[in-house]
User: Fold this.
Amino acid sequence: MAEAVKAVKEKAPKAPKEPKAKGLKIPYERRKALYGYGFLAIWIVGTIYFFLKPLFVSFWWSFNKTEVTLGEMKTTFIGLQNYIDTFTKDTDYTEALLAVLKDTLWKTPLIIIFAIFVAVILNQKFKGRTFARAVFFLPVIIATGPVINIINGNMDSSGYSGGADQFSTMFETDMAGALLRFLGVYNISDTVTEVISMVTSDIFNLVWDSGIQIIIFLAALQNIPFSAKEAAQIEGATGWEFFWKITLPYISPMIVANLIYTIVDSFIDPANGVMSLVLAQASEWMHGYSAAMAWAYFLIVILALGIVLPIINKFVYYEV
Assistant:
């Protein structure tokens, strides 16, 4: 019997051998890492070519006098002369810089406070909450150049200027002046009137610039642990105490993030005076002088952040 089984096995066709895998055997984790590097490679190439290269070229141009002759850019090294001329000869630059610093100084706290106030309201449960959130985030979606020009009455660039003044008045408010005139108050100091008018007349731009901050604060409010709310309710904390002792400490890291965003957003706004001067010099082919203005402005922005952030960071609560 055993011999018969052995004979059958010998006559049976043998299974073909599996071919050996050719090439290198790469572990699964290594392959995942290579896929990641492959996706990042596109971003790295774009960053180097479209960001770092122009950045270094701009920095080099800031130390040169640039001239365009017969369609060719010629540079002559002049050292720090462009930077010196920016602060000594160009009075428009220093005036615009002071105006931007002043505007950022009073507008940034207002945007942060307004964003916190609106985020706390939108975090409550009420009918139409989704629509209200969309309304406050809408400016972020449609905040394009043409829209801003139409709202501000600059319709020449939009191809229509007939109703610019009439249309832009829809977004202008003089609530402080109208209220004071209605109450018959005329003799308060000019400084107080100017401050009140400056804050209230720019209310539309204040709302327009707060969309991103409101969304960030909303996310922070929704991450407050429910146990903290329960503990506050058990202890009998009022809404006012809950805000100052629970809400504000938990969202304080996002206050720092929004502060950085708001300051940078204010400084790089193309409508401010410094950016207008930089772009004007570049349009006149004075790229060296324009680059010096931009780099000096960049250093001032970094300095402003370096002064503000350490002070604000002392009041930030970081959960351990």
